[in-house]
Amino acid sequence: ASAGFLSRPDRQTRHKRLSDVIVRSGESLLAIINDILDFSKIESGKLELETVPVDPSETTSHVLNLFWDPANTKGLDIAAYVAPDVPTKIEGDPVRLNQVISNLVNNAVKFTDEGAISLQVRRLPVGEDKDIATLEFSVTDNGIGIPADKLDTIFSSFSQADQTTTRRFGGTGLGLAICKRLVEAMGGEISVSSEPGKGSTFRFWIPAR
Ligand code: ADP
């Protein structure tokens, strides 16, 4: 090593490390490109939602499976609960629903160093039309939280609660802006409650036929 040579196993380790960096860079670049494409599609009014049968608990477990590894790698617990009165078949856009929930869970994992993330789906007792259920999806973490004066702005495009998070956590500040527009296109609303240092809960409701 003193002569600048690496023994073969070391060289392999180094190559492995570098190729991991390349894979990760590629993935995060792709995520950024997808965010920008999605955002401009929505902004130009080209977003069209599908209306096909969706099972909310299937979507939920799909997202749970997706984030199981990333959460566990950080030592975080992750769990999901779907209330028994949530219908097993609604009309909706499974890809976009999945995208919103994934984005919230991705943020929860990203902004939590220790603890747990929970994903819940329940039916809210509102609405007069018996054929339409109001479903609430919520994602709770006990991560870094969001300062009160930033709660209003995080749903706007390119906004991040703390400018330094750009360097510490990466991201574009587009994720929540896309979530907000998708949820509103579904006829619902998204909101957040948070306490710095304690954690955050993001929730959204949608009407579901
Ligand atoms: P990005 O994650 O790419 O920065 P988002 O639009 O998804 O963009 O989020 C905007 C900002 O909201 C984040 O930069 C972060 O400051 C804050 N934020 C979002 N989710 C959480 C969370 N679960 N805990 C703490 N802060 C969050």
Number of strands: 7
Alpha-carbon distance between the two ends: 67 Å
Structural class: alpha+beta
Mean of residue pLDDT? 89
What string, H for helix and E for strand, traces the elements in order? Answer: HEHEEHEEHHEE
- Ligand set: adenosine-5'-diphosphate
Hey, roughly how much beta strand do the residues contain? 15-25%
Instruction: Give a short account of the largest sheet.
Output: 5 strands, mixed
Query: Spatial order of the strands in the main sheet?
Result: 2-4-5-7-6
Helix proportion range = 40-55%
Overall form: globular
Write a brief caption for the model.
This protein is an alpha+beta fold. It contains 5 helices and 7 strands.
Question: Explain this structure to me?
Answer:
The structure is a single chain. This protein has helices at 8-43, 56-73, 94-110, 165-169, 175-185, and strands spanning 52-54, 77-82, 90-92, 116-124, 133-141, 189-195, 199-208. With 209 residues, it is an alpha+beta fold. The mean pLDDT is 89. It binds adenosine-5'-diphosphate (ADP). Residues 107-108, 111, 141, 143-146, 154, 160-162, 165, 171-177, 200 line the site of adenosine-5'-diphosphate.
Key features?
209 residues, 42% helix, 5 helices, binds adenosine-5'-diphosphate, alpha+beta, 22% strand, single chain, two-stranded antiparallel ribbon
